[in-house]
Every structure is written in structure tokens, then in C-alpha cells.
Design a protein that fits this description.
This protein has 368 residues and is of the alpha/beta class. The chain contains 13 helices and 16 strands.
Length: 368
């Protein structure tokens, strides 16, 4: 089997920096200035290790430099170079991604590391065969991604040619930084027919009965401890917690409240870590509808080192959102295998005012 690999080296930069995405050179420069560290190459290397460990006979074709070659070298996987980015471009723009996908047109399966913006670029290039996304972006709402880098590699190793259609969706990051904007469908890509190992498309809150988020918000506010800080992650349900407190929170951002007042707005990973180290801090996170992700999708401010410092997590989800998972667990993909494995077990999920359930939670790198 011949596998192709394309890496968007700047994917995910904006997450820990609290920038809600990584699209555009200005945002990428801001993220680097705020101390963000590129992670797409490492996540692609993790996928390659899982692939090569299970199917060492594969042939890997990739792109020179940070668009794939660096990941193959890090993973110790033999490879061939099929495309070299334009001099000076560094492989960080959409044109290079599209050109690389076209250059890898003869592979049996194309792996790409990035987020929804990268998925759109792959779609625009018109790949001839099956593709599979290695989740490395800030927001990974499209259904063409595996649950984790490890799962992407394991799925690629078991690929037998059967495929299904998966949706590519994205949102306008610039518009979303100033307020809620709906996710738009751009098209479909053919992916390996391994539905249990795919993240699935994110679903919105429009299917929730009126008042669901407000009911959960009342329960969260009533349980808040005096003097403790609460880091409210992104999502419609956590925005409702802000409204219940009389506060306007940051769309897609992480805000910290204490004793009913806003302590810090739209924090970066570093700022959140500083707060968690200086006082008792709880994380308040909602579940992504349709996917079941709790950590690692749009809330990268909750890094492994931040999670280690938190006094606890408050998990929020409506009964409808949990029911739609069909028994599948809540998922954690922080980027650190040991940190993710520590969550394996069960968590109490607040589902309404005076109502909660105990629900299974596990690392996204574990087989479902």
C-alpha cells in the first residue's frame, strides 16, 4: 500500500494562544509571539508511528521539509519526496497544500494533518482517492478526521479500500471572533469505512429544547464555591453560565470567573496555567455535539499542564446531546497520552438543574 502525507505546519497554532484558529499569516505571527509551539508535525509523526508499527511494509510518499518529511524522519519511517514547496513559502499557505495533494494523487490513501481549513484545501485540490485527517487544528468540526493521531495511523494500517463519504465543514474565524457564526458545509471527501474511528461532524445546539442550557447554567452557578475560580471553556452551554452570572463571555474563548465576577477574559494557555497555580481553579467544559469531545477540540488552553493543576472538572451536556452519542464515550485528546489516559473511567455530567448522570470518558487514542 502507498500512503501519502501532507502536513500543515501551522495548524493548531492559535489554540493555546486563545486565537480561535490559525488561519492567516497575521494570526500565525500573533500565536508565535504569544509563545505558541507548532504541534502538527508531532501529531503527524505519532500517526506514522502507529501506522508503521502495524503495517511496516507500506510505502510513504510525502512533501519536503515541515509539510511531511520532518514528521517521517521523527517517526523513523522510510519515505519518498513527491513534492517540494515553493522556495520561501515554507508550506504554510493553502496553495502549497493544494499543490502537494495533487502531487500525491497516485497514493492509495492520503493522510493530512491540520484542521478544518486544511480539510477545505484538500477538498479544493480534488483528491483522486481516499483521504483521512490527522486532527491537528484548533477546531476540528469536519467528519473526515480520525479521533486522534494514533487512531489515524491505526485506521490507515487497516485500510482495505472500502470508503464512505465524510463532510467537510468550516466557519469564518474572523467573524467568529466577534460573535457566534454557524458552521458551513463545503463538500464531502471519501474516507476509510471505519465509522467508529472517525470523529464525525460537529452538530449545533439548534436541536436542543429551549431552556436546556439555562437549566444547566443555574445548576453550575448554584454549585460554585466561594473564593474558587472557574475557567469556563467555549460553547453555547458555558455562555449560558456567563449569562446566569450577568456576565458577557468571549465566544469560543476561555474566561475565568470568581465569586460572580469576571477575573480574566479570553485567557491564553499560559495565563490559565498561572491562575491555576495561584489559586483553587475548576474547569467548566461542555461536550461537543455529535463528536463527544470534552478536551482537545477548540479548548487547547486546557493543556496537559493546566489540567494537572486544576482542582477538578465540571462537565456539562444536555440529555439530548448524550443520547445522540449512542453510548459512545466522551473523548479526551490533549496531546499527551499519559494525561489522556488519566481520564479513563467515568465522570459526573451536569444535565440540568438538580439533574446529572455518570457517563463514561476515555482517551481518544483508545480503541472504541
Amino acid at each position: 500500500m502507498i500512503v501519502g502525507l501532507v502536513v500543515n505546519p501551522v495548524a493548531g497554532l492559535g489554540g493555546p494562544a486563545g486565537l480561535k484558529g490559525s488561519d492567516g499569516p497575521d494570526i500565525q505571527a500573533r500565536a508565535l509571539a504569544l509563545g505558541a509551539v507548532p504541534r502538527a508535525a508531532a501529531r503527524a509523526a505519532a500517526a506514522l508511528r502507529a501506522l508503521h508499527g502495524r503495517r511496516p511494509g507500506i510505502r510513504l510518499r510525502t512533501v519536503a521539509g515541515p509539510m511531511g518529511e520532518d514528521s517521517a524522519v521523527a517517526a523513523g519511517v522510510p519515505h519518498e519526496i513527491a513534492y517540494r514547496p515553493r522556495p520561501g513559502a515554507g508550506g504554510t499557505d493553502a496553495a502549497d497544500t493544494r499543490a502537494a495533494v495533487r502531487a500525491l494523487g497516485g497514493v492509495d490513501l492520503l493522510l493530512f494533518a491540520g484542521g478544518d481549513g486544511t480539510a477545505r484545501d484538500v477538498l479544493d485540490a480534488g483528491p483522486a482517492g481516499a483521504v483521512l485527517g490527522i486532527p491537528a487544528g484548533v477546531k476540528v468540526y469536519s467528519g473526515c478526521f480520525a479521533l486522534s493521531p494514533f487512531t489515524a495511523g491505526a485506521t490507515a494500517a487497516g485500510f482495505d479500500g472500502r470508503t464512505l463519504d465524510a463532510e467537510v465543514v468550516d466557519l469564518d474565524e474572523a467573524a467568529h471572533r466577534s460573535g457566534p457564526v454557524g458552521v458551513r458545509l463545503y463538500g464531502t471527501l471519501r474516507v476509510p469505512a471505519a465509522r467508529a474511528r472517525l470523529s464525525g461532524r460537529k452538530t449545533g445546539a439548534s436541536v436542543e429544547p429551549p431552556g436546556s442550557a439555562e437549566s444547566i447554567a443555574r445548576a453550575v452557578v448554584a454549585a460554585m464555591l466561594p473564593g474558587a475560580a472557574y475557567a469556563l471553556g467555549p460553547g453555547a452551554t458555558t455562555l449560558a453560565v456567563g449569562r446566569a452570572l450577568g456576565l458577557e463571555l468571549t465566544p469560543l474563548g476561555v474566561d475565568v470567573v470568581r465569586d460572580g465576577a469576571l477575573l480574566a477574559s479570553d485567557v491564553t494557555e499560559h495565563r490559565l496555567l498561572t491562575l491555576a497555580m495561584s489559586q483553587v481553579t475548576y474547569g467548566v467544559l461542555s461536550v461537543i455535539g455529535g463528536q463527544g469531545f470534552l478536551i482537545g477540540r477548540g479548548n487547547q488552553q486546557f493543556s496537559p499542564r493546566v489540567l494537572d493543576r486544576l482542582a477538578g472538572l465540571v462537565v456539562l451536556a444536555t440529555p439530548q446531546k448524550l443520547a445522540a452519542l449512542g453510548g459512545r464515550p466522551l473523548l479526551v485528546d490533549s496531546g499527551d497520552a499519559a494525561a489522556d489516559a488519566a481520564f479513563n473511567g467515568h465522570a459526573r455530567v451536569v444535565t440540568g438543574h438538580r439533574t446529572s448522570v455518570v457517563y463514561r470518558i476515555q482517551s481518544a487514542s483508545e480503541d472504541l
